[in-house]
Amino acid sequence: MVRWFWQRDKAPKRTLALRSRGDLGDATRVDFAELAPELDTFLGQAAYLQLGYFETLTRLIRGTLELSEKEALSRAAGAALTKHREIVEIIRSRGDDPTQVMLPFREQLDAFRRKTIGVRPRETLLAVYITAGMLDDFYRAVASSYGDVGARVVEILSADDETHEIVEIIQATITSDEEWRSLLSMWARRLVGDTILVARAALRPGPLAIDDEKRVEPVFTELMGAHARRMDAMGLAA
User: Fold this and answer.
1) Where is the Ferritin-like domain positioned along the sequence (predicted)?
2) What torsion do the CA atoms of 227, 75, 198, 95 make, to the nearest 10 degrees?
3) Where does 14-234 sit in CATH, by number?
4) pLDDT tens digit sequence for 66-113
5) What are the phi and psi torsion angles at 116 (to 5°)?
C-alpha cells in the first residue's frame, strides 16, 4: 500500500524555509505542524523529479536539429542527472533501495510530467525550466526539516543546473517572433497552476483551514516571486 505525503503517523512540528537560488535574501520561515513528508518519501520524490527532468531533456535533444542547442540541452540534462544520482546516494547511505523508495511516486509524478509536455518543443523546454525551478525552490524549503540530510539535499538542489542557455534559447525564440512571446506566456501560466498543485499536495489534501493558509502564504508568495523573476529574465509576462 502506497503511503503519500499526508498518510503518516502524527509528527512533531517542523519548519519550512524557502530560499530560491540565492536571490531571495533571508528565507521566510513558517512553522506548520505536520507539513513535511517522511524523509524517505521526500528523498524518493526529489530523486524521481530530477530523473524526470533528465528524461524530458534527453527527448528534446533527440528532436533538436541545431547542434548548439543539443549541447545546451545536454548540459542541462547532465546537471539534472547529477542531482538525481547524488540524492540516490543519500538514499543508499541510509540503507534503502533507491528504486523501492522512488517507485511509489512514479505514477503520480509521471502524470504531472505528461501534463507539462507541450505540443511544441519550445513549450516543453519552458516547462522543464519553470517546473524544475519552482519545485527545486519548494523542495529546498522542505529539506530544512531534515537536519544534516536536508542540508545536503539543499546543497545538491542549489548546484548549477546549467539552465542559463535554456533562458537564452527562449529569449531568442520570443525575439524572433512576437507570437511566441504571447504563446509561451500563456503556457507558463498554465504550468504554474499544475506545479503549485504538486507543491500543495505535499502540505495536505483538500483545502487548508484559514489559519493554516495564513501561515503558509509567505512560502507560496516567495515561490511566486522567484517565478516572476525567472519570467522577467526571459522577457515573458508572469
Assistant:
1) 42-197
2) -130
3) 1.20.1260.10
4) 999 999 999 999 999 999 999 999 999 999 999 999 999 899 899 999
5) -100, 5
